[in-house]
Amino acid sequence: TGCFTYDPGFTATASCKSAITYIDGDAGVLLYRGYPIEQLAEKSSFLEVAYLLMNGELPTPAEFSAFEHEVTHHTMMHERLKNFFQGFQYDAHPMAMLAGTTASLSAFYHDTLDLEDPEQRRLAAIRLLAKMPTLAAAAYRYSIGWPIRFPRNNLDYVNRFLHMMFEVPSEPLEMNPVVAKALDLLFILHADHEQNASTSTVRLVGSTGANPYASVAAGITALWGPAHGGANEAVLKMLAEIGTPDKVDAAVARAKDKNDSFRLMGFGHRVYKNFDPRAKIIREMTHKVLGELGVNDPLLDVALKLEEAALKDDYFVQRKLYPNVDFYSGIIYKALKIPTEMFTVMFAIGRTAGWVAHWLEQQEDPENKIGRPRQIYTGSASRDYVDADKR
Ligand code: CMC
Fold first, then answer.
1. CA–CA separation, 47 vs 76, rounded Å?
2. What ipTM is given for this predicted complex?
3. Considering the entire predicted model, what is its pTM?
4. Long-range contacts of 240-245 (CB under 8 A, 24+ apart)
5. What number of other Cβ atoms are within 10 A of residue 299's Cβ?
6. How far is CA 198 from CA 115, 217, 220, 271, 356, in A?
7. What is the active site of this protein (predicted)?
8. Cα 217 to Cα 102: distance, rounded to the nearest angstrom
9. Residue 240: is it exposed, middle or buried by C-beta count within 10 angstroms (0-12/13-18/19+)?
10. pLDDT digits over 140-191, tens only?
11. Per-residue pLDDT tens digits for 62-103
12. CB-defined site of ligand 1, < 6 Å
């Protein structure tokens, strides 16, 4: 009973009003605060994009340097937070560690828990943006048994992260500008995507008045699934399993088989029924980055063949299934020597900018109320309890 609109998966329900990101899925358009993703990818930086998403406008040089200074100032994690890592199994997935330690931030930073105070909200958002790469790199180093590194605050956002990931005392880390630029660009492309599953999760948790660290930790867990951010890890595993271009047709046939649960990972999107504009940028970038780094990855040949085969196959054409952002990103991460288990963590670092922007917007929204969907009940009608000996 009940007269509710039944909309499983929320394919036709707008859950909020937002001025952050615009998507036209039929035309393949993506705008952050009105700026086309292509222009931001070419001209901006991840930190500038984070400022734009959070504040609504591009920063002046003075605003940017104040923002960068503030983010840099908050990169360190509390020394006792490191004890959390010791509690994880040595081979824990870094996403598990990232979600757990992000939630734990609320236990350390009590000066940002008064949600009525706009300055505390802003500071919490800055802390999340600043500390996410620190937590991410710590998760990686813990998983391989290396000591956790301090953030080097004389470096920029991306190089600081690379340093925390890969630096060993004996050999100073060579900072490769091609690697840093590629990573920065990937963070820009992942920074926001309106009401995707993880951002909707952040908002749903945020709607209850829970603190921002708890809300973003919930977003991280939603991102983890292979239908969402976990797809980049799944794509690389799939390409490795396919192995060679001559096995591509068999994989496409499997993906079309309705009795087989196998899907082409990195293909299809709830909103894009055309090329994902981020995938177009990443595709071009893959060739460039692999060329510049002198990497010859046979998986790229498998990916190109797979894309070509799927795009001319009726099954994929009729359903408007195109490569999405995750299809090529894994190949680039691999070329940048980011381990496969860290791919979704990379996505989380970039998406943190969007999560905190949405959380800030929601807190200021006078129409915000607790998210509380209804259901169509399909269970038993009212009945009497049966004693155990009579069942
Ligand atoms: N391979 C084979 N068939 C597919 C695929 C695929 N990757 N994606 C969708 N389909 C089919 C699906 O079986 C269905 O067919 P039919 O109408 O005959 O039942 C039709 O296309 C529509 O699919 P859907 O599952 O109803 O669409 P959705 O909007 O619920 O799902 C999706 C979107 C992204 C979860 C889905 O396309 C998918 O599972 N893709 C693979 C995972 C992936 O790449 N995810 C990353 C998404 S982009 C970045 C992000 O959000 O993190």
1. 17
2. 0.95
3. 0.94
4. 240/299, 242/302, 242/306, 243/302, 244/298, 244/302, 245/301, 245/302, 245/305
5. 19
6. 21, 10, 7, 15, 12
7. 269, 326
8. 5
9. middle
10. 999 999 999 999 999 999 999 999 999 988 877 778 899 999 999 999 999 9
11. 999 999 999 999 999 999 999 999 999 988 999 999 999 999
12. 9, 196, 227-229, 231, 255, 263-270, 319, 321, 324-326
Atom 41 in ligand 1: residue holding the nearest Cα:
265
**Ligand 1 center from residue 280 Cα (angstroms):** 18
Sign of CA dihedral 260, 266, 268, 274: negative
Atom 10 in ligand 1: residue holding the nearest Cα: 268
* CB neighbour list of residue 342: distance below 8 Å, 6 or more residues apart: 94, 136, 140, 333
Q: Could you identify the residue written with the tokens 């591509």?
A: 248
Residue of the nearest CA to atom 39 in ligand 1? 227
H/E element, 30 = strand 29-32
To test the ligand 1 pocket, which listed residue (324, 329, 346) has its Cβ within 8 A of the most ligand atoms? 324
Expressed in angstroms and rounded, the spacing between residue 338 Cα and the centre of ligand 1 is 26
As a whole number of angstroms, the distance between CA 92 and CA 102 comes to 15
Residues in the chain: 391
CA dihedral 205, 105, 183, 56 (to 10 degrees): 50
Q: CA distances (Å), 300 to each of 236, 239, 282, 330, in order?
A: 10, 9, 12, 10
Q: What is the dihedral of CA 118, 158, 354, 182, to 10 degrees?
A: 160
Q: How far apart are CA 182 and CA 320, in angstroms?
A: 29
Instruction: Strand 35-36: give its sheet, edge to edge.
Output: 21-24, 29-32, 35-36
Structure tokens that stand for 316 in this block: 């994929």
Best residue among 269, 276, 343 to mutate for probing ligand 1's pocket (most ligand atoms within 8 Å of CB) is 269
**Closest to 201 measured CA to CA, from 103, 116, 267, 275:** 103
Nearest CA residue ID for atom 35, ligand 1: 227
Can you point out the beta strands (E) in 33-105? 35-36
